[in-house]
Design brief:
The complex is a heterotrimer. By secondary structure, chain A is mostly helical. Chain A has helices spanning 10-28, 34-52, 54-58, 88-111, 116-135, 139-148, 150-160, 165-194, 212-217, 224-241, 250-257, 260-285, 287-292, 294-313, 318-337, 342-373, 384-387, 389-403, 409-424, 426-451, 468-486, 489-506, 508-516, 524-528; strands spanning 67-75, 80-86, 197-198, 201-202. Chain C is mostly helical. Chain C has a single domain (13-90), classed as Helix Hairpins. Chain C is built from 4 helices and no strands. Chain C is elongated and about 50 Å long. Classes of the chains: A mainly alpha, B mainly alpha, C mainly alpha. Chains in contact: A-B, B-C.
Chain lengths: 531, 486, 102
């Protein structure tokens, strides 16, 4: 019933609808009141989500890898084209973006009280930028969206952020910009290698193109040393975004200073752009370099998991705690991805979604608390479960989701990742599992200090529980957490084909063995690939 | 003697028309009470547009370059492209100047006359094919620019700017000329192509003459494009000169100087390619590094833009360094984009500037987003473009330059380029911070626009965005500006 | 009797150029600076004419004639700026190095 989605340029519509909304606010709602702008912008975001929803049903699980393709000439002179298309991975992230985006708009109603017109314009522009990143199948186009998105985020942090907003905003911008310009050099190297070649590497003589699919095709022909350099260039760009240690220092600053909606989008979607970059570009285009540098990647991932968890434990500020927990969770995602097998990749990608949902929800909840008390220090709270029972319940569910309790989404993601990692090496899996324990520890400890015990502070006595709008923000996330936790099959189904595609490219030996092995049996290479 | 066909003068019709326009304005300006500012501006706009139309119609360029007037000048895609870019830059400068010149209480006729004459010099320059014609054209540009820089002759800063510009400009001219004379002595040729042909032999016989000659020639040219370490005149001149003149120097003058630098190096000194590539690589690196680092600490917007223009000279040198097809396109495209970007940025300085050089501090932009959202948005576009962030022409241009460097194997210079351009974000965005993140105070100057200024800014914004979003046709346009490579 | 060769002219040209360069950098009086510039341009003329003679090629002399013309223009502009400076400050002394904050 959703076949019509294939006949219209639905991706472009989803991508540019927020942009159109922003222009409309700029052009038509000049003298309107703040509440009109607010309603209009939220309406646009909601509409965008609705328009993107049919993708889920219209996407053919067994059809072509990339669907809803749009293709048009753009800068003919250099071979850059306008190419849109999504596979299962991108589809999930697009839906996550429109969904979380809508919630972020809703959550801003009471949180943002000044310069609202500009705020919603920037938020809408940010949506377009992020959606474009996930949809682009042309590297040049991808890069344009990748950088364009930085500008509205910079202003969101810089204008509506906390006390150290200027510092946090420019730090965020500079870090990501440094990473992305180096990535640009990597893209250019690929471009020239596909063409006439560069430096010591004779090229393939292909037509000038930035097509990602073309780069996937030529992956096996890229010499290992060139792969190594390009991988490094990409790594800097993506790792800063993820963020992997040691490039993570911008994240706590940005998170703590950003307004709630900014944090939600930052944690929910922006960070996924980095992991998405690894999955879409580094792995399939540079398989040899990936395998060669695997120990480093794994080491950094596990380091991130443990470091993030330990630092989170020491935080006094709830928001900062959640921020460091992101470092830890994203370490998990990276670990799953670099397990380079179906289970690991499936888990890693699903965990991207899970992290978006649960951390997004956590930031929303922390934001709600902050609006009431204007502090986020754990020591300022205590016994809130008596004052705000509904809030405490939702917070508990999300906490459980975050630490990976069965029946909730985090469990599915982390478990699948561990299965994948275990195939590679039990040592890594053990270390990662230890990270989960740490994660449970700091989250539960925080929960205990905030919600249990006597109400120690007078101000907390009269705190309002969730109102309708706030509940409407959080409940969908809770529902989704349960859905993924109880019935993840649809998600794995949609991921099956793209994950297989990536494994085939990044580790052909594994893929062959997988095909040869009888069902239910581990492939032979696994036993020998303990490193 | 080569055949000398008087009809070939017709092919110089655009330059001649522009020179006539300049002289006419000069005459009209000196009769009685002179020409009112707006009339002078309209007249010079008229001449510029007419000249551009003539360039488009008369100079129909074939695939082969055509040498005219005893090979003094050449008509090729390269010259045509840069003539049009320079004319566009000058026209925008005229628009920016209207209110400024009115305020200054100096004669407007002379100002516009000098502008047109300097532009005539630039047009001859980019079409020059002989060291003599190139030098004379360069001097026409330079002499007019010295006077323009000191146009506010009763203001000390403007005067000092002119003085500094004159002394260092004359120094660089003399060095350039000395180098040219040595190359002439070594080869006996002044025509670029014959010079190139005679060089290999001269390098054997003329031992010292050739290296000294081309090095001094390069120093003179690098002075003109304000590359480190020959940049010392730039900040002071840019700050002291009347802002529209600064814009003109940063855009048109720089474009013309780069064009001639590229032409001399590529067509005149191809034999020395490996040698000059090393020099250019070194100069480009220190220019990018120093230009950006020095800009970091500036609080005066004009001075910041001066250092930024030094830094951008470094980026453009990347294209020359590559000495490849893509390299030359990228130089052409970047200078096209940069003309609009930098003129737009300086136009914004004009908007906020007051008598006595007030309104030039970064802090004067405080809260501009509230008081004048469209102007602030325009400035943001220029800042993004200068940093090289999409969707602007600055981004496409920089990608092109870096691509050229990577392709030619100068990856380490490209790495310096991308890292310094990331750093440049910091100082460019200090203006954005003021506009969007700070509140204005009572002392903050109100933006003061005029229709001409608005038109100029709007043109620059649209051009910057179109060059970033749909650069296709313009890249093809720039591709026509390629030179035959060694 | 010493025979005068092109090299002698070149050396003389170089010395004049160097004197001009040093004068331009060191002296603070704008009139001396102007003279230094003239000196440098004229050293180039010497070069050009010497080469022209050696190569039996007229182009060098043509170049020299043009240089003389342009030098006149340059002197005129320089004097104009000098006059404006004198009116403002009442002196022709300049302090180039200290003003160059670079």
């Amino acid at each position: 019933m959703f076949d019509w989605a294939h006949t219209i340029p639905i991706l472009s519509i989803v991508c540019y609808l927020p942009l159109v909304g922003a222009v409309a606010i700029l052009a038509f709602l000049r003298g309107s009141s703040a509440s009109t702008v607010r309603r209009f912008a939220t309406g646009v975001a909601g509409l965008d989500f609705l328009v993107s929803l049919p993708l889920w049903w219209a996407f053919q699980r067994d059809g072509e890898l990339f669907q809803f393709r749009e293709s048009a000439g753009w800068i003919e002179a250099i071979g850059a084209r306008y190419e849109f298309g999504v596979d299962g991975i991108a589809l999930l992230l697009v839906l996550l973006t429109t969904f979380l985006g809508f919630l972020a708009f809703l959550s801003s109603w009471s949180a943002i009280q000044e310069r609202e017109r500009e705020y919603y314009i920037f938020l809408l522009l940010l949506q377009t930028g992020m959606l474009g990143v996930f949809m682009s199948l042309d590297f040049f186009l991808f890069y344009v969206f990748w950088e364009v998105m930085l500008v509205p985020m910079y202003f969101l942090i810089g204008i509506w952020g906390g006390p150290r907003k200027l510092y946090a905003a420019i730090k965020f911008f500079l870090y990501t910009l440094v990473g992305s310009v180096l990535m640009l050099l990597g893209i250019l190297a690929l471009y020239f290698f596909n063409g006439d070649g560069l430096l010591a590497w004779p090229g393939l003589g292909g037509d000038a193109t930035f097509s990602v699919l073309r780069f996937h095709e030529i992956a096996s022909q890229i010499p290992p040393d060139l792969q190594f350099w390009i991988f490094l260039a990409f790594f800097v760009g993506f790792a800063i975004k993820v963020p992997m240690i040691p490039f993570h220092t911008w994240l706590p600053d940005a998170h703590v200073e950003a307004p709630t909606a900014g944090s939600v989008i930052l944690a929910g979607v922006l960070l996924k752009m980095g992991t998405y970059g690894f999955v879409r570009f580094s792995l399939p285009i540079l398989p040899e370099a990936t395998r060669e540098l695997l120990p480093w990647m794994i080491g950094l991932s596990i380091g991130g998991i443990l470091y993030g968890a330990l630092v989170a434990m020491a935080q006094k500020d709830v928001k900062k705690l959640v921020a460091y927990s992101s470092v830890s969770h994203l370490g998990f995602v990276m670990l799953g991805i670099f397990a380079l097998n179906p289970a690991g990749l499936n888990g890693g990608i699903l965990q991207m979604i899970n992290h978006g949902l649960s951390t997004g929800a956590l930031f929303l909840l922390v934001g709600i608390l902050y609006e009431r008390r204007h502090t986020r220090l754990i020591s300022e709270f205590g016994g809130l479960s008596k004052v705000m029972p509904a809030y405490a319940t939702v917070f508990l569910i999300i906490t459980m989701a975050s630490i990976g309790l069965p029946t909730l989404n985090g469990f599915i993601g982390e478990f699948t990742i561990l299965v994948g990692v275990f195939e590679r090496s039990w040592v890594w899996a053990a270390l990662a599992a230890f990270g989960i324990v740490l994660g449970a520890a700091y989250m539960l400890w925080m929960y205990q200090r905030v919600f249990f015990g006597p109400v120690r502070h007078e101000e907390n006595q009269g705190l309002r529980d969730l109102n309708g709008r706030e509940l409407a923000c959080v409940l969908p996330l809770v529902v989704l957490c349960f859905w993924i936790g109880l019935y993840p099959k649809p998600f794995f189904e949609i991921l099956e084909q793209p994950v297989e595609y990536i494994v085939q490219r990044v580790d052909p030996g594994y893929a062959e063995a997988l095909a040869a092995a009888r069902p239910g049996e581990l492939p032979a290479v696994v036993a020998g690939s303990g490193e | 003697m080569p055949a000398f066909d008087l009809r070939e003068f017709l092919l110089l019709a655009p330059e001649i028309l522009l020179a006539i326009g300049g002289l006419a304005l000069l005459l009209a300006g000196s009769v009685g009470r002179g020409v009112p500012g707006r009339v002078a501006a309209s007249l010079s706009l008229f001449f510029l547009v007419a000249t551009a139309l003539l360039v488009l119609t008369v100079e129909e360029v074939g695939p082969e370059p055509r040498l005219i007037l005893g090979s003094s000048f050449v008509l090729d895609g390269f010259a045509r492209f840069f003539k049009l870019v320079i004319l566009a830059g000058t026209a925008l400068t005229v628009l920016i100047s209207v209110r400024f010149v009115d305020d200054g209480a100096y004669r407007a006729g002379e100002y516009h006359a000098l502008l047109l004459l300097a532009t005539t010099g630039m047009m001859f320059m980019v079409g020059g094919f002989n060291l003599v014609s190139i030098w004379i054209a360069l001097e026409l540009m330079a002499l007019s620019s010295y006077i323009l820089a000191g146009y506010f002759k009763r203001e000390t800063r403007s005067n000092e700017a002119a003085l500094k510009y004159f002394v260092l400009g004359a120094l660089s001219s003399a060095i350039l000329l000395y180098g040219a004379s040595l190359l002439y002595g070594a080869t006996g040729e002044l025509r670029l192509d014959l010079l190139a042909a005679a060089l290999p032999e001269a390098m054997v016989t003329g031992r010292l003459l050739v290296p000294t000659g081309w090095l001094m020639l390069s120093v003179g040219l690098l002075f003109k494009v304000a590359a480190v370490p020959f940049h010392v005149w730039t900040p002071d001149v840019y700050v002291g000169a009347p802002t529209p003149v600064t814009a003109y120097l940063a855009a048109a003058s720089k474009t013309a100087s780069f064009a001639i630098l590229v032409r001399i190096f590529v067509q005149g000194l191809p034999t020395l390619l490996p040698d000059w590539q090393i020099v250019i690589a070194a100069v480009a690196s220190v220019t990018m590094i120093w230009g950006n680092l020095a800009a970091l600490t500036q609080t005066n917007v004009k001075r910041m833009l001066a250092y930024s223009s030094i830094a951008h000279a470094g980026y453009v040198l990347l294209g020359l360094l590559a000495a490849s097809v893509i390299g030359l396109w990228s130089v052409a495209f970047y200078l096209l984009a940069y003309t609009f970007i930098t003129l737009g940025a300086f136009a914004m300085v004009v908007v906020l500037e007051r008598r006595e050089y007030a309104g030039e501090e970064v802090s004067d932009y405080a809260g501009l987003a509230r008081r004048a959202p469209w102007l602030a948005a325009a400035m943001l576009v220029f800042l993004l473009a200068l940093t090289g962030i999409p969707p602007t022409g600055g981004f496409v241009g920089k990608v092109y330059l870096f691509a050229a460097a990577v392709e030619a194997g100068w990856t380490w210079v490209a790495v310096i380029g991308v890292l310094t351009s990331a750093i440049s974000l910091y100082y460019y965005f200090s203006i954005a911070v003021q506009m969007y993140l700070k509140e204005s105070t009572r002392d903050t100057p109100e933006p003061l626009g005029s229709p001409a200024l608005t038109a100029a800014i709007a043109t620059c914004v649209v051009a910057t965005l179109v060059l970033g979003l749909f650069p296709g046709p313009f890249i093809e346009f720039a591709q026509a500006a390629g030179l035959p490579l060694p | 009797m010493l025979e005068i060769t092109t090299n002698h002219y070149l050396v003389l040209g170089f010395i004049l150029f160097a004197i001009g360069l040093v004068g331009l950098v060191v002296r603070r009086n704008l009139i001396v600076v102007l003279m230094s510039i003239e000196l440098m341009l004229n050293s180039v003329n010497l070069n050009l004419i010497a080469f022209s003679h050696q190569l039996a090629d007229l182009a060098g002399q043509v170049f020299a004639v043009f240089t003389i013309t342009v030098a006149a223009g340059e002197a005129a502009v320089g004097l104009g700026i000098l006059l404006a400076l004198y009116r403002l400050r009442g002196t022709t002394e300049i302090d180039v190095p200290s003003e160059l904050r670079g």
